[in-house]
Amino acid sequence: MGNSALKAHLETAQKTGVFQLTGKGLTEFPEDLQKLTSNLRTIDLSNNKIELLPPLIGKFSFLKSLALNNNKLTALPEELCKLKKLETLHLNGNHLRQLPAAFGQLSALKTLSLSGNQLRTVPTQLSGLRHLDVVDLSKNQIQNVPDTVGELQAIELNLNQNQISQISVQISQCPRLKVLRLEENCLELSMLPQSILSDSQISLLAVEGNLFEIKKLRELEGYDKYMERFTATKKKFA
């Protein structure tokens, strides 16, 4: 990627507020972007080979969307958490094991995608995010879902293709959770809290590919109540 090409991208970004440079084999975050800290609303650097996100990311105070899918990130800088306007964060297909301690300060965040990383648990920091709608934690190494999940404000939580064998009963307390995806995990039927069925807001529970037959789920107490919510929601979207 030559400097002239980068310069052209920067000029476009200055006008549009969008900087998109994907699949160019970049090994680092383009430092020249810091000239546009007040212009940029969207940065997409997906499908590159970036290993580090520099602290200067915290200076993009108007950034609404950041995508770094399919890079080589192993950690995120604390400075990322200064992005008070960030609504969408896509970090699928990296090597992340955890989130920065201050991640809960991303107060505008609505969509978070962390599919295909190396997370071992549902990050507790997510519970502080009040506007979160969709959280994708599929294809990680999560083994259990902790009590803090009860404070999660998300509408949809995707935990497909992990190694989950335990789920806190607190998940039934999630005030807005409508869609819970748990396909292809290591759940025994006895480890699925019945309150998800009988006493939660969840109207779509996807549990195919675990250690029990789906028809056994239908025999559980509370399944009728779940079906009422499921049917009511289906009608609404029909």
From TrEMBL:
Span of the signal peptide: none
Stored InterPro entries: Leu-rich_rpt, Leu-rich_rpt_typical-subtyp, LRR_dom_sf, LRR_domain-containing
Gene Ontology cellular component list: cytoplasm
Keywords tagged on the record: Leucine-rich repeat, Repeat
PANTHER family the UniProt entry points to: LEUCINE-RICH REPEAT-CONTAINING PROTEIN 57, PTHR48051
Protein name: Leucine-rich repeat-containing protein 57
Organism name: Pycnonotus jocosus
Lineage, top ranks: Eukaryota, Metazoa, Chordata, Craniata, Vertebrata
Chain's gene name: Lrrc57
